[in-house]
TrEMBL record:
Cross-referenced SUPFAM superfamilies: Histone-fold (SSF47113)
InterPro entries: CBFA_NFYB_domain (IPR003958), Histone-fold (IPR009072), Transcr_DNA_Rep_Reg (IPR050568)
Keyword Transcription regulation belongs to the record: yes
CDD domains in the record: HFD_NFYC-like (cd22908)
Keyword terms: DNA-binding, Nucleus, Transcription, Transcription regulation
Occurrences of domain Transcription factor CBF/NF-Y/archaeal histone (ranges): 51-113
Compartments it resides in: Nucleus
Organism: Tribonema minus
GO cellular component assignments: nucleus
Pfam families for this protein: CBFD_NFYB_HMF (PF00808)
Top-level taxonomy: Eukaryota, Sar, Stramenopiles, Ochrophyta, PX clade
UniProt protein name: Histone-fold-containing protein
Molecular function as annotated in GO: DNA-binding transcription factor activity, RNA polymerase II-specific; protein heterodimerization activity; RNA polymerase II cis-regulatory region sequence-specific DNA binding
Family: Belongs to the NFYC/HAP5 subunit family.
Length: 127
């Protein structure tokens, strides 16, 4: 798993072990969900998503290099976005609990982003 690394305060080994265990469980559940997904038609798969496909398609088309978008692309992007949001929330919640709070704050999200290498592309957004 890619790092929970170079931020100013170092997380304890117990916290990191707990976070990694939670993430392993999360991704295991995601894989299991995908393996047993019973979608009989393309339309059924499209309505399975919680994010608005029309908005995702509009965002994709905002790139001037994008000419055509297959029907499956927004559906896959929606699922990828959902998984991204879920992982970021899980990581943020771990920092909220670490600070002995039961409320997720923007500081928890910032800390999760700063301490996760794969979220480096978001660091400028939260500054």
């Amino acid at each position: 798993m890619q790092g929970d690394g170079d931020a100013s305060a170092v997380d304890s080994p117990a916290f990191l072990a707990n976070l990694h265990a939670g993430l392993a469980q999360f991704w295991g559940e995601q894989m299991q969900e995908m393996e047993v997904l019973e979608i009989s038609t393309e339309q059924a798969f499209k309505v399975h998503n919680d994010l608005p496909l029309a908005r995702i398609k509009r965002i994709m088309k905002s790139d001037e290099d994008v000419r055509m978008i297959s029907a499956e692309a927004p559906v896959l992007f929606a699922k990828a976005c959902e998984m991204f949001i879920l992982e970021l929330t899980l990581r943020s919640w771990a920092y909220s609990e670490k600070n002995k709070r039961r409320t997720l704050t923007k500081e928890d999200i910032q800390e999760a982003i700063e301490k996760t290498d794969v979220f480096d592309f978001l660091v400028e957004v939260i500054q």
